[in-house]
Amino acid sequence: MSQQEYKGIIGLRRGLLDIIIIILVGLITYALIYVMEYLTLPLIIIKLIIISASILSALLLIIAYLDVKGGFEFLRKSEINIKMATISSPLLLTLSIILFIEIVVYSLITVNIFTSLSEGIYPYIYTLLRIVAFSTLIVLAFSYRKLGEHYNSDLINYGSLIFILGVLTFIFHFKYGGFLALIGIITMYVGISDILKEKFPRFKSSNVSLGVLRNNGEAELSVYSKNQIQVISATILGTNYISNTITPNVLTKGYNSLKINFNSPIQLTPKNIYTIRLSLSNGRTLDVNVIYETT
């Protein structure tokens, strides 16, 4: 469990929070419009509320793009490749750009500037916005579902399906689809939070301890395990160094001190932090950060 992987999961969780806020903004805006129409308030006020909510949503989409993009990039650096991740973040950026264009055109119509041109192109922009929004959210949901499969998280898997159902329902009934999507994405958020609690217990403290990797080929590190399990091999990520000389080679419940001998001198950059990946007998892996020292 490397710091890169930890940062990746944190970024993806922040991305979900951004989208939760966007959905809430949409639902609140829908409720406000309903109330204002019931009270027969001037149309210009309703349009200004729509424009304000759209601007806020567009800004949040850009933040979501940065969080999701950064999250998947950190996971790739940890050699965790999630299918569809490479297209989900660019789609978020594309969606935010189209939304900004839609806001500009809608604003021009509202203030009666270039009215004929704006009204002529607005239906096409709005249709394009809905298509891109639908595609983006579906791809994003499947990306998170793949993340859930990687970490065996039922909450993320079920949440992504509920979210997809919400997006599909959104096409026909905004409010019902919005509520379903909100439930799904909150479920996914809880699932990612559980991953952080279960998989990264040593990052709960700001004082993160590092293992030591020496140039003579020996490494000493501390590993937390929830169950007793055998360690099959150890690999220094980004290098060709691999070893099955691990003492002890069985992890017990709690914190374990391991010594690994890579059986040859190691040439790396002094004082840099590297990640040793432990392959376990259940098919899973465990990443531990180490600092490289010369003796």
UniProtKB/TrEMBL annotation:
InterPro entries: DUF973 (IPR009321). Keywords: Membrane, Transmembrane, Transmembrane helix. The keyword ATP-binding does not apply. The chain crosses the membrane at residues 16-35, 41-66, 87-109, 121-143, 155-172, 178-196. This is DUF973 family protein. The lineage of its organism: Archaea, Thermoproteota, Thermoprotei, Sulfolobales, Sulfolobaceae.
